[in-house]
Specification:
It is built from 6 helices and 26 strands. The chain is an alpha/beta fold. The chain folds into 4 domains: 167 residues, MoaB/Mog-like domain (Molybdenum Cofactor Biosythetic Enzyme, Chain A, 3-Layer(aba) Sandwich); 51 residues, Molybdopterin biosynthesis moea protein, domain 2; 84 residues, Molybdopterin biosynthesis moea protein, domain 3 (Molybdopterin biosynthesis moeA protein, domain 3), CATH 2.170.190.11; 68 residues, MoeA, C-terminal, domain IV (Beta-clip, Beta Barrel), CATH 2.40.340.10. Strand 23 and strand 24 form a beta hairpin. Helix 1 packs parallel to helix 5 and helix 3 runs parallel beside helix 5. The protein starts with a helix and ends with a strand. Bound molecules: ligand LQZAQKY5 and molybdate ion. It catalyses: adenylyl-molybdopterin + molybdate = Mo-molybdopterin + AMP + H(+). It is an enzyme of class 2 (transferase). Its EC number is 2.10.1.1.
C-alpha cells in the first residue's frame, strides 16, 4: 500500500499521451492544446478608438471652448480613413481605426454637434480612449501554451489569434466495466429480490467525459472469470483506458485484477492508504492503462475524482495536478481526528462554510449526490473545530 501523494506522483510520471488531431474551434471546449497558439496578427490591428465620439488633435483643444470642423467618419472595418487636419475632427466609433493626425478621442457625451461643426467645452479627462496597435498582443506572440485546457475564455484567445483550427490531443477512449453478479440495469433491479441497480459506471463515465475522456462504452458483467477475461480482452482492443469497478477487494468473487491477468497486467500501484477508496489500483496491460475502482459507490466516485481525473488530464497532455486544486475553507462543524488512512470527508457548502455530511458511509449513494466537496485530512491529523480551516476540493 502506498500513500496518496505517491500515487499522484506515479500518475504524473506516466508516459502515456493521446495522439494529436486538428479540430475546428467550435469543438474545442474542454480539449487540451497539443501545440502553442501563436498570434498571426496584432491585436488591435491598428490604433483604435475605445469609445464612440470624435477623434481630435489634442493641441486643438488646449484652450476651451473650441470648435472643430467635422472632416469625416471612421467605422470599424473601414479601409480608407479621412485625415484629421488642424482644427478638424472625425466622427469615430468603438473599435474603429484612429485616423491619421488624431491623438485622442473625446466621447460624444462631452461635445455638442451643430451640423458640420463640433463644440468642445468640457475639460478633457486623463483618458485618451485609444487602444494602441498590438496593445493586447503582437503577431508571433504565444497566446496559449501547449497543455492548456480550453474553456470559454481561452477559446476567445484562440480565435483572436486568427486560427480556424487548432491541434489538440485526442480524448482518451474510456471503457467502463462494472463487475458484480448482483448488478442489474437501472429500471430492472426491482424484478429480482437480490439485484441492485448498477449505478457506478454511469457516474464514472460522466466523470470521464468531464475530464477530457471520451466514454466508449459501459458494460455490466457477472463475476464469472471466463466472461470477465473475454470482456477485458475486448476492452483492451477498443479503449485507451479501461476502468473496472467492483471486485477490487479480497472477497472470493473479487476478480477485477485477475481478469486482466492473461493480458499480462502489471501494476503501477495496488491499494492506496486513503479512506474511502483504499482498494483502488492502477495497472497496464497490452500497452493500455487499467484503473480499478472499489465497488462501493461513494468509494468509487471519490477514487475516480482523485485518480481518474488527473489520469485523463495526463493522458491528454494536460497538467494532472490541475485536476486537484485544493483550497482552504472554513468548517461549519468540527471533524474528528484521523488515524492511519488519509481521509477524504464528503461535505457540502453551508453558506461560505464547509459542512461535513452526516452520512460518511462508503456505500452511500444519496449522500454522494449531496457531496459538493472533499475535505482532505492527512494521516494522524488532529480533530478540527468549527471555524478552523481545512483543504477542500470541488467534488
Ligand atoms: N475483509 C475485507 N473486506 C473488505 C475490505 C478489506 O480490506 N478487507 N475492503 C473494503 C473496502 S475499503 C471496500 S471500498 C470494499 C470494496 O470492495 P470491492 O471493490 O471488491 O467491491 P464489491 O465487493 O464488488 O462491491 C462493494 C459494494 O458495492 C456495490 N457495488 C459494486 N459495484 C457496483 C455498481 N457498479 N453499482 C452499484 N453498486 C455497486 C456492491 O453491491 C457492494 O455492496 O470492500 C470492503 N471489504
Ligand atoms: O475504502 Mo473503502 O472505500 O473504505 O469503503
Amino acid at each position: 500500500m502506498i500513500g496518496f501523494d505517491e500515487a499522484c506522483a506515479r500518475i504524473a510520471a506516466l508516459p502515456e499521451r493521446a495522439a494529436v488531431e486538428c479540430i475546428p474551434l467550435d469543438q474545442a471546449a474542454g480539449r487540451i492544446l497539443a501545440t502553442d497558439i501563436v498570434a498571426s496578427l496584432d491585436a488591435p490591428r491598428a490604433d483604435v478608438s475605445a469609445m464612440d465620439g470624435y477623434a481630435v488633435r489634442e493641441a486643438d483643444l488646449a484652450r476651451l471652448p473650441a470648435r472643430l470642423r467635422l472632416a469625416g467618419e471612421s467605422f470599424p472595418g473601414q479601409p480608407d480613413l479621412p485625415e484629421v487636419g488642424e482644427r478638424a475632427c472625425v466622427r469615430i466609433f468603438t473599435g474603429a481605426p484612429v485616423p491619421p493626425g488624431a491623438d485622442r478621442v473625446v466621447i460624444q457625451e462631452q461635445v455638442t454637434r451643430d451640423g458640420g461643426v463640433v463644440r468642445f467645452e468640457r475639460p478633457l479627462g486623463p483618458a485618451r480612449h485609444i487602444r494602441p496597435r498590438g496593445g493586447d498582443f503582437r503577431a508571433g506572440e504565444i497566446l496559449l501554451a501547449a497543455g492548456t485546457r480550453l474553456d470559454a475564455r481561452s477559446i476567445v484567445a484562440a480565435a483572436a489569434a486568427d486560427l480556424s483550427e487548432i491541434e489538440v490531443h485526442c480524448r482518451p477512449r474510456v471503457i467502463v466495466l462494472a463487475t458484480g453478479d448482483e448488478l442489474a440495469e437501472p429500471g430492472t433491479a426491482r424484478a429480482s429480490p437480490v439485484a441492485i441497480p448498477e449505478s457506478v459506471s454511469f457516474g464514472v463515465a460522466a466523470m470521464a467525459a468531464q475530464w477530457s475522456g471520451a466514454p466508449a462504452g459501459r458494460y455490466r458483467l457477472p463475476d464469472d472469470s471466463g466472461v470477465l477475461e473475454h470482456a477485458a480482452r475486448a476492452a483492451l482492443d477498443a479503449a485507451d483506458l479501461i476502468v473496472v469497478t467492483g471486485g477490487a477487494s479480497v472477497g472470493e468473487k473479487d476478480h477485477a485484477k485477475a481478469m486482466f491477468g492473461p493480458a499480462g497486467l502489471e501494476f503501477i500501484f495496488t491499494k492506496v492508504a486513503i479512506k474511502p477508496g483504499k482498494p483502488v489500483w492502477l495497472g497496464r496491460a497490452r500497452g493500455k492503462l487499467v484503473l480499478g475502482l472499489p465497488g462501493n459507490p461513494t468509494s468509487a466516485l471519490v477514487a475516480a475524482r482523485l485518480f481518474l481525473a488527473p489520469l485523463l488530464l495526463r493522458m491528454s497532455g494536460g497538467d494532472p495536478s490541475s485536476a486537484l486544486c485544493w483550497r482552504e475553507a472554513v468548517l461549519a462543524e468540527g471533524l474528528p481526528a484521523v488515524r492511519d488512512r488519509e481521509t477524504f470527508v464528503r461535505a457540502c457548502w453551508a453558506g461560505n462554510r464547509v459542512m461535513p455530511l452526516s452520512d460518511q458511509d462508503s456505500g452511500a449513494q444519496r449522500a454522494l449526490a449531496a457531496a459538493e466537496l472533499l475535505v482532505r485530512r492527512g494521516i494522524g491529523a488532529p480533530a478540527r473545530a468549527a471555524g478552523e480551516t481545512v483543504d477542500v476540493l470541488d467534488f
